[in-house]
Amino acid sequence: MIGNPSLITRIAIGKFIGLIFGLFGFFLLPYLWPESNMMLRLGVLFWYITVGAFIGVFGVMNWHPIIRMPLPWWFRAPWIGGWMNFVLTLFVYDTFQQMMVHMLGPDFPFLSPFWFILEGAVIGFIMGYFATKLGGEGKDTVPERP
User: Fold this and answer.
1) Is the pLDDT of residue 72 over 80?
2) N or C: the chain end with fewer CB closer than 10 Å?
3) C-alpha to C-alpha distance for 140 and 131, rounded to whole angstroms
4) What is the Cα–Cα distance from 136 to 24, expressed in whole angstroms?
């Protein structure tokens, strides 16, 4: 960790990494799937920024009060990224299905749009790593109230 633990730093790092992955999606989507429209491209851009913010915020919770177990960043961040992409896939399932068929062909054996869950978990892992490495984790990231 660089400097003092900070929740704001965690959120900023998560959002910055989300911006990077969102920009990759924004600019690569027309090449991967020419039928993609601007709303889908902007949605992907803003989605990953939001996922980064969630991962940054949830860095405070490194202990689960109900199951009474620690939640290390390497479990928590991919879980959040995968869950968020699961929700995204439920919203735009048909669009992702068309995109997968266009990119891989109709005879490809793994055409399920739910593969985006794995993508979200990997991106969440990357976000969680850097947010924890640079911003800290746990209750130390939240300043004491006067």
Assistant:
1) yes
2) C
3) 14
4) 27
pLDDT band for position 19 (cuts 50, 70, 90): very high
The two structure tokens encoding residue 114: 């739910």
Two tokens, residue 61: 């919770």
**Residue 102 CB neighbours (<10 A):** 14
Tokens of 103: 């990119």
Q: What is the DSSP letter of 143?
A: P
Phi, psi of 70 (to 5 degrees): -70, 150
C-alpha distance from residue 78 to each of 34, 41, 100, 145 (Å):
29, 23, 23, 31
Reported confidence tier of residue 64, pLDDT bands at 50, 70, 90: confident
